[in-house]
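User: Can you write out an input/output pair for a complex, sequences first and structure second?

Assistant: Here is one pair. Inputs:
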Amino acid sequence: MKILNLRKKIIINSLITLILLAINGVVFFFYNNVEQASKAEIKKVEDQISGIKLRIKEIENKDAEIKKYKALWPTISEKRKYSGGIKIDDFNNVLADISKKYLITTENVKIDLPKIINQGVFKRETFDLYYTSVSINYFAISDVAAISFVEEFIASLYGYPVIVYFDMSKSKPYTAQDLSDISYGKSKGSIAGKLEFVWYVPKSLQQ
Amino acid sequence: MFAQKAIIITIGEHGTVVSAYSGSKTLSKLFIDILDEKSQNHIKEAFSKIKSAPIYIMLDTADQIYRKKNYPLVKKGDLKQIIKRDLSSDADRESIKNYIILEDKNHTKLKERKNWETLFINAPLSENANSWIKFLLELPNELAGIYMLPIETIALFKKLKPSIIKRSKINSKRNQIYCLIVRNRASQVRQIVFSQQGMIFTRVVDYNFENGGDLEKYEHDIYSTFEYLKRLHSDLKISEFEVINILAKNDLDKITKISNVELNFVNYTPNEVAQEIGYGDLLPNDSAYLDLVISKCFYENKKKVLRFSLPKIEFFHKFFLGLKSTYYANLTLLATISIFSILTVFEQEKSSASIANSEMKKISFTEDLAKLNRINIDDLENSEEQISAERIVDFGKNEETFYSAQQGFIGIYDRLKFIRENNVRIAKISYQIFNKDAKNTQTLKNFTLKFNGEIKNSSGDIENLFQDFDSLTSQVASNFKNKTIKHSELPRNIDFSKKYYSLPVDFTISNKAVEQ
């Protein structure tokens, strides 16, 4: 009787053990699930916070950048604020006006087809940058006129012309005949100059 | 509910003492003369509420045989094998047997020993004891094992020893031998001798001190025990032989009348012993028997000395072991489930708090972001020019990128204005950006400037020419610091007879870095 009772108890206990093992598995699974789910939820919110922080940082940086460039804005000339792209007619008009002013005879004016440049430091949000190479051979009656022509011409162009080559030489001293020819407009002058520059001009994206 | 429980059955020649304990409480104490149906029912009823308590049988019978045997010094494992072989070859099949290897506390290392001392114990099971075992095996409780009362009395002796030492009249005791004379209800008077090795001798004696009788026998028994011990411990002296009487007050009164000056007694009543070891409520004041004190000490002693068993007991023991294992497994699983449940709740609360905290942070940062956006929009809307911030930034970047490159030639030419002051007439000037790359504005700063012409002197003093040339070179150097400057020198073959001098000059200025 006692053995039967003991056996019965052992069997019942073993069954309870199995049930408890199953419950233990379920509880562990649930615990693990809760832990993973909460970790995932926290990570999701933290990722969102990181995104917001990043955005705040970006805005702060942008704000600092805007403040910096806002201070610079009044110092930028109107010509450099131009964003209409390279316009050959305008270029020719400026060249003609200033050449006339300094009695310059231009020859062999070359201007390449403008190319777009919008990579790296040239990347802009509101406009694309175009550039072209310009080459002008010219004659002047004096070195002062030759240099003044270059200075004024470059200053008159909108955008950013960057001189990459300049050459000026006097082929011979002036004779009385030369001076007479100059006064009659028959001579181009004995000062030969060559100007090459790279011309960067913004063009608004809306245009 | 979870307190330690046990039932101790002390079986002797004169009856059986049954006691049950739970924690420090004594649940019941019974004396059973004969195990008949009535007493069995009584016990069953008494134990019905403590079915989980294991039952320990303590035999306090007179026919227990203690035999000391020496074995040669072999490894302890081998010694146990030899002893088991000796036990199995013993012709006495009816008795329960076991052994103790006596530890020699003076020689703890194997090398220091001369031999192994062992104590063999044989205890024949009387009809009464067998009836008890049979009855106890039928109870739902586990029969944990059979123990010998004299051996297990060590638990009481250890507790009482400090008090014995305090009461001892021996000034210089050079041995650790103590002879306890106790009266139990189950077996009457018993001598038990303890040494450092535990119990080394016991026997049941019978005294009746009424009217001064048996005092001589008592004295004689002490001497005979002493003589036996003298064979084991040759340096033992009667004057240093401590006799501890734990007897009824009347008996002790008689013993104190013994006029033998050689004998040293320490006397206790059973109640005094109970008081000394902290079992104040266990015995009545006039109790004459020590059984209950011994059984309670045995119950409290976690490390029982020597367990005896029977095949039947072992058979049930395996079932109980299996049952206990399942209980413990279930308890462990329950604990694990509880822990995981608590952890789950804790984790849920923790994660809810963390998520709430993160959400709060998110809201706070979102508000900050909205505020920043609003400020930016307001800033831009308030600006008079109504120009987008992006456009301002873009043109600002243009200015940064090109300004210094654009200033290149014009700026350099401006720095050459000093030339006219040095009587130099320029014939040719050239400026060139080398290795230019329109897509890299840094390359647009690497220039070479060349100019040549004539330096003129109209004063007629050649010294002035030299001074003008020196002035020219030093001004070029000061105006183009950190640049590489190369220039022609004045010719050596100057015709000093001339009135005016005009000599060629040639300068090349370039970025040092490029030169390298």
